[in-house]
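Input structure tokens:
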């Protein structure tokens, strides 16, 4: 989820020296020496690829969430839903900007494992990342709850929370996320390392240069994230899936609703043909309602799939990384890949929640265009094959 140098503290092969050689195991040594290859985990091509991907996804995510803020401050809709969308956009922008600021400077230089942002950001940025991810995950569950209450419980009472309820929920979400994320302000530490390039010839003298890393105790970090995953993120995932599954089942069960005429819709005999016209109108309305219900069902499934693909791999990999001793090129590629995937989730959220109707219309248009192109290509291929058969005959 992050990429903040747990490696150097416990994984990288380095020599550590202390002026009196008498320090506790948990203390940071006065002098840490690493080979240059340890701070150059990615090739130039890999750095360029991740730099371009991070730049594009971050830019589009910031633009999309800025539009979400503008639209939701002017659009009239359920207050709780609008409050959640605004908070979701803010948390997405925080995560996107912080992650982009962390990734881009490091991918720009060959020593991409060094921390070039100074000691203050070493404490603040991990906190902001964890904070925004927690807010984001909780808000997605709140949106699922709002949809659940609006769809499933609509027959019992109208679901329309007031301003006090919305403000209270917003304060609780942001406050709880800040409290849970607060240990990140002290877990990471900024310290100096001495980097030794490999000599070109065995007889060459060793040289070094100084760099800085932002590191944490791996055991402490692993314990912290294991608790968050077990007691916060996993219950949020289960709640999100359960609520959306119930909503999807309700929508699917109602897809035939309205096909049978109600007493108010019973045809009235008429010698002028109005009865047949009324039946046709009712049938058209039923078909359109069924299409809309099926479309909403697919949207709910899509929301759950995107949530799983963009959130769960990052958390699982973080837990795995903190509980295993490995620091290979593949590990760094996976680390950045999951980071870009989390940024992609921030990019998709505006189109899956605020601009859902526009997204559906756009996808329908693109689908029709693609089907038309495929049909035209198939017709051309068939015609060409028939012409070849006729010419050979």
């Amino acid at each position: 989820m992050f990429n903040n140098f747990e490696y150097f503290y416990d994984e990288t092969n380095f020599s550590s020296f202390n002026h009196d050689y008498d320090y506790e195991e948990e203390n940071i040594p006065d002098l840490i020496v690493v080979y240059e290859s340890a701070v150059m985990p990615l090739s130039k091509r890999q750095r360029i690829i991740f730099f371009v991907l991070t730049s594009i996804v971050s830019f589009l995510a910031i633009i999309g969430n800025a539009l979400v803020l503008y639209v939701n401050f002017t659009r009239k809709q359920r207050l709780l839903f609008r409050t959640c969308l605004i908070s979701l956009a803010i948390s997405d922008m925080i995560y996107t900007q912080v992650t982009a600021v962390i990734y881009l400077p490091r991918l720009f230089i060959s020593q991409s494992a060094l921390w070039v942002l100074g000691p203050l950001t070493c404490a603040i940025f991990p906190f902001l990342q964890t904070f925004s991810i927690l807010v984001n995950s909780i808000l997605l569950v709140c949106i699922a709850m709002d949809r659940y209450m609006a769809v499933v419980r609509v027959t019992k009472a109208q679901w329309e929370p007031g301003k006090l309820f919305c403000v209270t929920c917003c304060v609780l979400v942001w406050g709880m996320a800040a409290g849970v994320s607060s240990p990140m302000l002290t877990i990471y530490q900024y310290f100096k390392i001495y980097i030794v390039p490999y000599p070109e010839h065995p007889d060459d003298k060793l040289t070094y240069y100084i760099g800085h890393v932002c590191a944490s105790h791996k055991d402490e970090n692993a314990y912290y994230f294991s608790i968050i995953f077990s007691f916060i993120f996993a219950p949020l995932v289960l709640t999100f899936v359960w609520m959306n599954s119930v909503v999807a089942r309700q929508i699917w069960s109602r897809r035939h609703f309205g096909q049978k005429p109600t007493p108010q819709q019973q045809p009235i005999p008429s010698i002028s043909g109005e009865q047949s016209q009324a039946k046709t109108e009712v049938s058209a309305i039923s078909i359109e309602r069924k299409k809309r219900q099926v479309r909403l069902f697919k949207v709910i499934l899509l929301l759950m799939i995107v949530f799983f693909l963009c959130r769960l791999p990052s958390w699982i990999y973080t837990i795995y990384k903190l509980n295993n001793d490995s620091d290979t090129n593949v590990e760094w590629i996976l680390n950045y890949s999951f980071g870009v995937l989390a940024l992609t989730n921030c990019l998709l959220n505006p189109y899956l929640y605020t601009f859902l109707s526009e997204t559906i219309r756009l996808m329908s248009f693109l689908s029709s265009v693609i089907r038309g192109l495929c049909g035209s290509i198939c017709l051309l291929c068939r015609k060409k094959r028939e012409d070849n058969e006729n010419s050979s005959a």
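The two ends are 65 Å apart (CA to CA). The chain is about 70% helix and 5% strand.
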